[in-house]
């Protein structure tokens, strides 16, 4: 089950620039509209990624290293993005995401984690024991699940525009929803 | 059904840099492995995007403008990526994609398409009449379906590594497949 931490860091280091290149300056019809009532826009997804940088990955890694399984992870509410989104533009959110990700990767590298560290276990409030290795791999996979979601949200805006092609575009058939816990 | 061509161009112009920022220099376990026997790696997806730049979007737009519905679009075989992939590295493929996309968008802008042009119809070999507007919207949505696929292929490599988190990651539940015709 163990993964190579360098593979995870290589991906985590690239996501902010990839989202920046894709999203900065795009017309708001792509970035400020969701998939229906109560769903997230692309900007909201970026705010959620910032929230997770602050309250999810590194704080949970610290809990594992300091307390092991004795303390469950603190809760990570799905609507916690609100305090990071505020009234910021998407450009500001992309800046915030790049800044906090760089800081977190610097902190992660400074831990100089060993194989033994990666096998240490913590306690997830919903599904019990998890390893530090699994948590860090999930950090990278969480970027991918939201890249997947962003491409789906954007494609949704063109469901009508593509006419008969809609049934041939995989992204328009996707019912997958991101809900990393 | 009509869409704003500038929205489409804004996205098409950003995809090569977004893929470059995400993929260039990543370890090959992310980019050279598919989702099982006979499936595409990330590198193959990029080669397919290059193939579509050469043989799909602008050639079909030209058929619509020159021949309307009298000629069906030429075929676009799914394995046509092979002649663009060859033995190229992912870095070379990303360069090729950026180059041909820039050229195609320059050619598209030079057409100075009017609303009347966008409503002109061509004939898809499988599902009949389509408008130029629908073709160009599909060009952008096709980028998104493959960004969606790329995130899914990459996440697949971490199915084991994330442990119990796999069932909470939307991208790992996705069975959507890209098959733009």
Explain the overall architecture.
Two copies of one chain form a homodimer. Chain A has 181 residues and is mainly α. The first copy, chain A, is 59% helix and 4% strand. Chain A contains nine helices and two strands, in the order H-H-H-H-H-H-H-E-E-H-H. Chain A has helices at 5-23, 28-31, 42-55, 57-67, 82-85, 90-110, 115-118, 132-156, 170-173, and strands at residues 121-124, 128-131. Chain A has a two-stranded antiparallel ribbon with strand order 1-2. In chain A, strand 1 (121-124) and strand 2 (128-131) form a beta hairpin. In chain A, helix 1 (5-23) packs antiparallel against helix 6 and helix 4 (57-67) runs antiparallel to helix 8. The longest helix of chain A is centred in the last third of the chain and has 25 residues, at 132-156. The first copy, chain A, is elongated, with a radius of gyration of 17 Å. Residues 177-181 of chain A have low confidence and may be disordered. At the A-B interface, helix 1, strand 2, helix 8 and helix 9 of A face helix 1, strand 2 and helix 8 of B.
């Amino acid at each position: 089950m163990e993964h190579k931490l360098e593979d995870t860091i290589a991906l985590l280091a690239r996501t902010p620039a990839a989202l920046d290149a894709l999203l900065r300056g795009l017309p708001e019809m792509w970035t400020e509209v969701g998939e229906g009532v109560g769903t997230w826009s692309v900007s909201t997804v970026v705010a959620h990624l910032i929230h997770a940088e602050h309250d999810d990955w590194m704080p949970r890694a610290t809990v594992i290293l300091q307390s092991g399984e004795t303390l469950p992870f603190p809760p990570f509410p799905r609507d916690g993005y609100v305090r990071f989104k505020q009234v910021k533009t998407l450009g500001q959110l992309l800046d915030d995401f790049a800044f906090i990700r760089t800081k977190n990767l610097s902190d992660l590298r400074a831990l100089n984690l060993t194989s033994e560290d990666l096998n240490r276990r913590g306690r997830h409030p919903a599904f019990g024991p998890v390893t530090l290795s699994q948590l860090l791999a999930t950090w990278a996979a969480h970027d991918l699940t939201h890249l997947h979601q962003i491409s789906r949200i954007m494609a949704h805006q063109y469901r009508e525009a593509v006419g008969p092609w809609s049934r041939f575009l995989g992204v328009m058939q996707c019912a997958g929803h991101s809900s990393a816990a």
